[in-house]
Amino acid sequence: MKSLTKSPGKVRKAGGERARPRHEFSPRSFDDHPKSFGRGRTPGATTHTQMSSREDSTIRVAPVPGKRVVTTLSGGLPMPNSASLAPNIVAWVGLDWADQAHAVCLQEAGASPVEHSELQHTPEALQLWVAELRSRFPQGQVAIALEQSRGSVFYALMTYDFLVLYPIPPKALADYRQALYPSGSKGDPTDARLLLEFLRKHPERFRPWVADDAPTREIALLVQHRRKLVDDRTALTHRLQALLKGYFPQALEWAGDLTSPLAWDFVSQFQSLEEAQKASRWKVLKVYRAHTRRTPEQLEQLLDQIRTARPLTTDRAVIESSALMVRAQVDQLRALAAGLERLEEKLQELFAAHPDHDIFNSFPGAGKALAPRLLAAWGSDRQRYETAQDMECLSGSAPVTAQSGKKRWVHWRLACPKFLRQTFHEFAGHSILWSPWARVYYQQMRKRGADHHPAVRSLAFKWIRIFYRCWKDHTLYDEARYQQALERHGSPLAAALRQLPNQEARA
Fold first, then answer.
1. Do the beta carbons of residue 73 and residue 149 sit within 8 Å?
2. What are the φ and ψ backbone dihedral angles of 344, each rounded to 5 degrees?
3. Do 451 and 40 meet the contact criterion of CB atoms below 8 Å apart?
4. Using CA atoms, how far apart are residues 191 and 390, in angstroms rounded to an integer?
5. pLDDT the model gives residue 205
6. What is the pLDDT of residues 366-410, one digit of tens each?
7. What is the pLDDT of residue 155?
8. What residues form DSSP beta bridges with 106?
9. Residues 58, 168 contacting (CB under 8 angstroms)
10. What is the pLDDT of residues 313-337, one digit of tens each?
11. Which of 43, 221, 318, 358 falls between 20 and 30 A from 142, CA-CA?
């Protein structure tokens, strides 16, 4: 590996000689409360408090008294102290967004009257409203509390530098409303006022949204769009599978993977067993030879299976209606695959040009799908997280300790951005195949009685500390260097790694 030039910092080779950083990959990260990831286990000395909000939350409970956890929203950066912005705020706004019209509450700083209005959801109306705010308050900033950190209203307002956006978690607002209105009454004007009141009375509990740089934001949006397209593809293949099982189950074996062009061509050409058996030998072989390299013996065996197969049903109503639906599903899969391919090309282009490309590409098992997701998870601002524990809590990798009286129990963290948790969880699972220490640690967790997912979650907890150090220092990950650190600190993992064959330990 070689040193990489980067702005604003410099990417250094992890294995090179340099002064030891203030934080280094520490084997202690493998031994901190390992049992806390199991079900019903008692945690060790270090515990983690529960996050107080759901996905995209800006409120976090501090892990230790007197210390705040600096976290962020997807695509935004936190400010170190939201209260410090209060002297610059000249007006406070609560905006309850809707599809057609938004309820707005406005209160000037230092004034008691609250103004209520309704804002139509059109670009012209939004721009006119913002222009009126600027004309009315030519100096200072206007704080706006709203229930989202993305979406049309947010995208429309984020471009104005005098607007300070405070995304309020829907779950936090719902709990606040329930505390003040136990009857459950709800309305858009009421929610707008509650948003205004929530932010004004507790400004220190929220952090304003500040944008990442444009390439990082685009990568973050693209990886989420890609995940949605993959989920859509999975849903379509499940529907296609269910249809074929109902009238033509042999196609599932003959076509193979339903996300492959071979499967699409096969079920398009032969929409029923009757059509496959009536087709000429040349027509069947043409479909397979266009996509696979099967031997002549395998092709002959396949042709024999088609000739001797028996239909599941001969009901024409079932067969013909299902065949039409199969064709519709295949057409959707083809179109989705083309769109997914274009998106992935753009994503790889942006990721290759990003300054942090080499850092996240250096982690074992990241690959072209997970490396951009890891980059999007951490963002571009190195001041975003004060410690690795901030990300461990935000991503849901850190367990939650709950205590009431003499009872004390530990469970996994539910309140977190699900896509963020999925990113670290999937990477940790892939790293087991590529990183010797990760594989050994996973095996040790399983031997202690942890199920697969708690063990992977525990491994993700350890990886986040390594991610944090590399991301903070602009340093590439080096597997050999980390194993040397394990040896220096006498980690139990180092002893387990020494028992592996040399080739496997260096894989």
1. yes
2. -65, -35
3. no
4. 30
5. 85
6. 999 999 999 999 999 888 888 999 999 999 999 889 999 999 998
7. 86
8. 93, 115
9. yes
10. 999 999 999 999 999 999 999 999 9
11. 221
User: Any bridge partners for residue 475, and if so which?
Assistant: 12
Question: What are 424's two structure tokens?
Answer: 């670290």
CB atoms < 10 A from the CB of 175, how many? Answer: 14
Task: Specify the DSSP element, H or E, that contains 90.
Answer: strand 89-96
3-class DSSP assignment, residue 25:
coil
CA 12 to chain centre: 28
Q: Which two tokens stand for residue 227?
A: 């995940």
Q: What is the pLDDT of residue 476?
A: 97
Beta strands (DSSP E) in 274-336 are: none
Cα 249 from Cα 267, distance rounded (Å): 11
With residues binned 3-state (H G I as helix, E B as strand, rest as coil), the percentages for the chain, rounded to 5, are 55, 10, 35
Residue 54 has pLDDT above 60, yes or no: no
Considering 54-63, 395-404, 458-467, the range whose residues carry the highest mean pLDDT is 458-467
Backbone angles phi, psi at 33, to 5 degrees: 25, 60
Helix 367-378 to helix 418-434 angle (10° resolution) is 130
Q: Are 396 and 420 in contact (CB under 8 A)?
A: yes
pLDDT in tens, 181-240: 998 888 899 999 999 999 999 888 888 887 788 999 999 999 999 999 999 999 999 999
Residue in the block written with tokens 């444009």? 214
Q: What is the largest CA-CA distance in the chain?
A: 86
Match 């500040």 to its residue by tokens: 210
Give the angle 244-248-249 at the CA atoms, nearest 5°: 75
